[in-house]
Amino acid sequence: MDSYGWRFVLLLLAVVVTSATGRDLRTRFATQLNGDELREMVGSAAALRHEAFVPAKRHDNSDYNSNDYNNNYFNRDFKHFDNSLLIRDNGAALVALSLHNLLVPRVSGSEANANVRNHIVTVFKALQWSVEIDAFDSETPHGKLPFANIVATKNSNAKHKLVLAAHYDSKFFDGKDFIGATDSAIPCAILIAIAHAINPLLEAQDLLARTTVQFIFFDGEEAFVNWSATDSLYGSRHLAEKWETLAADGSTIPSFSSSTKSSQSSNKKKSILKSIDAFILLDLLGDPTSTFINLNSKTTWIWERLVNIEQRLASLQLLSPQKSELVNVQNEVAYFVPGISTFGSQAIDDDHRPFRDRGVPIVHVIAVPFPKTWHTLNDDSDHVNPNTASDLARIFTVLVVEYLGLLV
Ligand SMILES: [Zn+2]
């Protein structure tokens, strides 16, 4: 993600939030869970436990956030993971393992990047999701390099998809280990947590279900040198362009610009892009002080549901204690600011852009202001809060469950 327009964003922050549109928030969601169902959902999903997101220190095992849970798991190599522990703690252990595997420098084209990719693929294959690797080469300021996006889908027969995405590469820092915890190891771990939490519900879903959920892990989001149209967003630019002219059955369909919508009706086959109901991009998550503003007026109906879920979970004390109190007692926002920001969807450049420019409805969830650690060596496990990651995983899990109508 890039910072152009950033100072402008800061200046306007205090005055841009306007009132919500008053649209009926329930119309496009299949269901809304009641209090007992929310408790059941959050309580039964081990992956949503706060402990699942406590990051390990890579170099100093003695300095873990010490409790038995973490000490039991973080010293283990994924290959040697004890199956009995895995069964007992289900998703939480796997998310903890994912975070451990993700919190490493993972620059596109490197061996570590491939290791992280393999880890994510292993996680989703174990859950029996369809996994597609979108591999390609691209010229970069560092020469021609290989990239590979990961696309994981539970029910690839569904005609409509709710997409959640994050980037798994980390920014290149010459000679230094940049971890990129918020950028975007934590967002990737949140996606993995959601997958673990909803997987049993998806398995029980009708195979003929109209709508499913898809996770995209982008490679090559970061610029190698300076953020520009050609040095950034390698993975999302490639996938959006490919999906614009590709149908779900693998056939090619004619390209048309998003501005000539009248031509769509003459195409019998829909591009894969047209099967995306909404594309939710997570970036720069995990800093405990972050809040998020609605940058996309077209998807306010989703944003207002996020606001609503935050309030419902807080009222049931199902967010972390500090955030629940913030909402319940101080009547403040924990994460999602209501209303619509006038920054617009162009203010912050990110992996959503190639999709937005082709007409895909976007929800851009990114910390505004950016975390203080952004693109510094401090964007590491010391500067993220497991409660924040857990709270956000819970909120997005409920969003997906309610959108797809997955009953507890
Ligand atoms: Zn970045």
UniProtKB/TrEMBL annotation:
InterPro entries in the cross-refs: Peptidase_M28 (IPR007484), QC/QCL (IPR040234)
Leader sequence residues: 1-22
GO molecular function list: glutaminyl-peptide cyclotransferase activity; peptidase activity; zinc ion binding
Record key words, sorted: Acyltransferase, Hydrolase, Metal-binding, Protease, Signal, Transferase, Zinc
Superkingdom of origin organism: Eukaryota
The keyword Lipid metabolism appears for this protein: no
GO terms under biological process: proteolysis
Domain Peptidase M28, chain residue ranges per copy: 149-397
EC number: 3.4.-.-
Coiled coil (UniProt feature): none
A Pfam family: Peptidase_M28
EC class of the enzyme, as a word: hydrolase
Family the UniProt entry places it in: Belongs to the peptidase M28 family.
Protein name (Swiss-Prot/TrEMBL): Peptide hydrolase
Species for this entry: Physocladia obscura
